[in-house]
Fold this protein.
Amino acid sequence: MTRDLLVVDRVIKRFGGLKAVGGDDGLSFTVPEGTFLGLIGPNGAGKSTTFNLISGVLKPDEGKVLLDGVDLAKARASEIAALGLGRTFQTPRAFPSLSVLDNVIVGADSAGERVGMAFSGRWRDSEGALRDKAAAVLARVGLSERINDHVGSLSGGELRMLEVARQLVRDPKILLLDEPTAGVDPSLQSKLSNILVDLHAEGRTLIVVEHNLHFLLRIADRVVVLQNGQLLSQGTPAEIKADEKVITAYLGADHAA
C-alpha cells in the first residue's frame, strides 16, 4: 500500500486574528507518495498560504504538517531541504550576474555555503561533479542553448523553466511548483506539461498550485479544491469537474464533464 508522504492534519493559520486557512475544524488532506496533486481554488481561497505551510515557510498556529513523519514546524529550512522538499516561487529567483548553468550549479547545494561561494568564485573548485548534471536538467527543460547566457537575458517563461531546473538538479523527493505556467508561452507550457508528466511517471511526488485549470486538470491525478481557506472538495480531475460544489463556486458550467 502506498504510504502518505505528506500529511496536512487539522491545520489552522491565522493572520491578525483572522483564519486564513483551516476554518473551524482545520484543513486536512494527505498526499500519498508518487501522487501528482493539483491545488486549486478561487482568489483568496488560501492556496498560497497552504502552499507556504506545506513547504515550511509558514508555521501553523494549530495542527501539523508532516513530511515523511517529520513535523515541519519544528524543522529548520536546511532540514526541510534535506528531507527532499524542493519548491519554486511565483516570482522566479536567480543570481542575475551568473550564467544559466552557474545558477543551476549554485542551486544544487541547499546548505547555503555554495551561495556565499558563488560570489567569491571558490565554488568553481567543485563545479566538475555538478556540471554534467546541471547541463542535463537544463536540456530537460529546454534551456540547453542558453546554458552560457546570463540570466538577465532570459524571458519570463525561460526564468520559470530555470526555476524548475534548479530544483530538479537537487533530485527532490517531493517537488512543489507555485504557478509554473505564469508568464510562460504556449510552447513552453507544452514542454512543462511533458516534464511534469515524465517526473510523475518516474514516481516523483508533485504538488502544483496553478490558475491554468486546463493545464492542471489534464495532467494531475488528484486535486484538492480550497474555498475560504477550507477544503471544498478533493478527488480525481474527473470527479472535481463533475462536483456541483466546485462548479458552483469556481469552475463554471463549461468545465462540467
Observations:
- The first strand starts at residue 4 and ends at 15.
- The chain has a mean pLDDT of 87.
